[in-house]
Amino acid sequence: MVSGALLATSCAPPQPFVWASRLGKPEDQAAVYRIGPGDEVYVLVADQQALSGAFVVGPDGSYIQPVVGSVPISGLTTKEAAQQLTARLAGILVRPQVTITVTKRRPIRVSVIGEVTRPGRFEMPFDEGILAALANAGGLNEFADSDSIYVVRREPHLLRIRFRMRDLAGPDAISARFRLNDSDVIVVE
Q: Which end of the chain, N or C, is less surrounded by CB atoms within 10 Å?
């Protein structure tokens, strides 16, 4: 009896969570996109066609800019990347004006664990939702609690977001419009 009492008191309290419906509109949830390996960017240097063009960010997080060479931009916003390139071109051009846009985003990678048919790590197109990730994992298994689906997100801070399957299936529900980020973990209890 004593060991059972010890077990009950030594268990950690359940982790707090926030309901997905309380996060606000999906556009309010959108984090600032950071450039990463695999993204395709378009660099426009005003009045410099030879320095402008589409480039793919390599595995090391940089791309090769004509005249300048390797430019590391992984982890930067498009504005920060443009500022960095502007500074590098300052010694080459008089008052360089640079605009950088992401023309093709890299796929995201999410993990699905818990009570699903095929748990694992899945590569998905950018801007996918939870239902697509659950479909990749073969759906919920017979032991799943359809009211206990969580997304664990580490960036910009650790957050545990709770969903109900019935809220994900309706097109008008805010939860159905929730979008996954790279490295999210979906836990089905």
A: N
The 10s digit of each residue's pLDDT in 22-59 is 765 554 444 578 899 999 999 999 999 999 999 999 99
Rounded to an integer, what distance in angstroms lies between the CA atom of residue 126 and that of residue 124? 6
Tokens encoding 78: 């498009």
DSSP 115-181: SBSS-EEEEE-TT--HHHHHHHTTSB-TT--TT-EEEEE-SSS-EEEEE-HHHHH-TT-TGGG----
Q: What are the pLDDT digits (tens) for 72-95?
A: 999 999 999 999 999 999 989 999
Do 151 and 186 touch, CB atoms closer than 8 A?
A: yes
Instruction: Report the C-alpha gap between 112 and 186 in whole angstroms.
Output: 5
Has this prediction a pTM greater than 0.90? no
Q: Which two tokens stand for residue 25?
A: 């509109």
- Other C-beta atoms closer than 10 Å to the C-beta of 60 total 10
